[in-house]
Amino acid sequence: MSEQQQARILIAEDEANLRLVLQKELERLGYRVQAAPDGEAALRRLEESNVDVLLCDINMPRIDGMELLRRVHERPNPPEVIMLTGQATVETAVEAMKLGAYDYLTKPYRITELDVRVKQAADKRRLRVDNVRLREQLARQSALPEIISVSELMKEAIRLIERVAPSEASVLITGESGTGKELVAHAIHRLSGRADASFVDLNCAAFQESLLESELFGYEAGAFSGAKGRKLGLIELADGGTLFLDEVTELPAQLQAKLLRAIETRTFFRVGGVRKVEVNVRIVAATNRNLETVVNDGVFRSDLLYRINGFQISLAPLRERPEDIEPLAKHLLRQVGGTSPPELTTDAFEALRAYNWPGNVRQLKNCLERAVILSNNGKITVSELPPEVLRPAGTATAPRERRCRTRPAPRRRKAGGCGRRTSHTPPSAQTRRLTAGRCRASASTGCTAGANRPGGSGWDSTAGGNRPRSPSPRQRWRRAKPWRRRARRTHAR
Fold it and tell me: Is 308 found in the same domain as 329?
């Protein structure tokens, strides 16, 4: 069904013919229409059924239109009222609007004009009802959403949240990625006096510098190419509420100065604007970086840090509070496991406790999502957990062995010898040919390698000792390396 068919109309008109025509025409347009001849009958219909829009004539017997309008707005969740009259005066129109009428039409009017007014009035009431319902749902929710913990470190953090939330102080939340800084920011907003206003969040690391300024402060029409109309910035949309700046240390230097000015004076200029905009927002910021390091390195302004760090809350990583792993795992399984989430076995719980969780709660949630997909028979065992969780602490994957493709290192020559393999077995002719001229040791060194090969080709066994004969040019050519051969060819050419 369309929105038009869902709208319920009540016509309070004393003229029977006009009442019947209006009823038929609006039913033809798809509305659900009831009719009443006077004000008393209209009040009884309002008691019996729920109505979105009331079309009320001003001049009626028993109870006139103004009195009916007054009584309707005394009821809880009243319908929107459109006043109809054939004797229009400025005084009656002003009085009707003061009493809460949505609109005022004079007779005669066109059905198309009435249709447009009825649609607008029905949309307004629908939005009002949805707003009331959502606020009631929000009020029934816990003030500290999804902060599941039994450790003393997190209990201390929750105590600080409850103490600082009612104040107007700026809050800086520090901690590693995945520790729940955004949940803490939501909790501070819900426990504050600004809970009924808006909560606007901005990830400062997700935008480029040029886009970040227009997102945060907005822009005027014609401020740059493509700016066809005015756009309100997030700091203006959070007026009266809370502005959460995640990864605040990633702000560019130029934007840090403009944000500092906006926080101190509670005024700012839109991009391309010439008039100041006043805002009343509470700043809650978060970062996962070391504050002292970013200030000393000149990445973040110290004066801006002092301005947003009115009250600091540090969240401990999950590895420092292992007692929180079990309640967190059960809570996350209920979230990702559907109506019948699987259960973790004892071995799986022990593996989760033994892991150090560098990604903290976010990594734990991703791990459990994977395990739920792979689980069988409603049980999660260690085989469904990621490999890094099962790997012992402090170990790393061994790197793949690389084969050395370089030339082997030359064999070290022994003291007093040539380092060649010696053998009393007479070498073959090919061996004598390849080893000819290798031994450079003299008789004084005591090397007996030449003596082991008497009469070998290429060796001189004269009285002077075992001296190698000078190799022939052909032998030197065969023993030369390829790059030496190329060099010799080039030199010869």
Answer: no
Cα distance between residue 201 and residue 179, in whole Å:
17
What is residue 366's predicted lDDT score, i.e. its pLDDT?
94
- Mean pLDDT across the stretch 408-414? 52
Q: Is residue 12 a contact partner of residue 65, using CB atoms and an 8 Å limit?
A: yes
- Ramachandran quadrant class, 264 (left: phi over 0; alpha: psi -120 to 50; beta: rest): alpha
Q: Tell me, what CATH number does 251's domain have?
A: 3.40.50.300
Q: DSSP alpha helices (H): ranges in 228-324? A: 234-237, 253-265, 291-296, 302-308
Q: How many domains does the chain have?
A: 3
**Same-domain check for residues 297 and 338:** no
pTM flag (> 0.70): no
In a shared domain, residues 204 and 81: no
pLDDT of 451: 43
Same domain, 235 and 126: no
Residues 133 and 188 in one domain: no
User: Stretch 163-179: mean pLDDT, rounded?
Assistant: 95
What is the overall mean pLDDT for the chain? 82
- Token pair in block for residue 460: 């001189």
Distance in angstroms (rounded) separating the CA atoms of residues 251 and 294:
12
Question: Residue 492 above 60 pLDDT?
Answer: no
Q: How confident is the model at residue 398 (pLDDT cuts 50, 70, 90)?
A: very low
Same domain? 168 vs 261:
yes
How many whole angstroms separate alpha carbon 466 and alpha carbon 93?
A: 132
Which DSSP category does 107 fall into? S
* Cβ–Cβ under 8 Å, residues 124 and 9: no
Place of tokens 């012992």: 392
Same domain, 327 and 297: no
Residue 108 lies in a domain: yes
Cα–Cα distance for residue pair 52/32, rounded to 1 Å: 10
**Residue 200 shares a structural domain with residue 224:** yes
Q: What is the DSSP string of 138-188?
A: HHHS-SSTT----SHHHHHHHHHHHHHTTS---EEEE--TTS-HHHHHHHH
Q: Is residue 428 part of a domain?
A: no
Contacts 24+ apart (CB under 8 A), 153-159: 153/316, 153/320, 153/321, 154/315, 154/316, 154/321, 154/324, 157/184, 157/313, 157/314, 157/315, 157/316
Decide which of 89, 113, 138 is a domain's last residue.
138
Bridge-partner residues for 467, per DSSP?
460
Whether the CB-CB separation of 141 and 191 falls below 8 Å is answered with no
- Domain with 340, as residue range(s), is 318-390
Assign residue 63 the CATH number of its domain. 3.40.50.2300
Predicted pLDDT at 416: 47
Residue 336 phi/psi, 5-degree rounding, is -95, -10
What are the pLDDT digits (tens) for 347-363?
Answer: 999 999 999 999 999 99
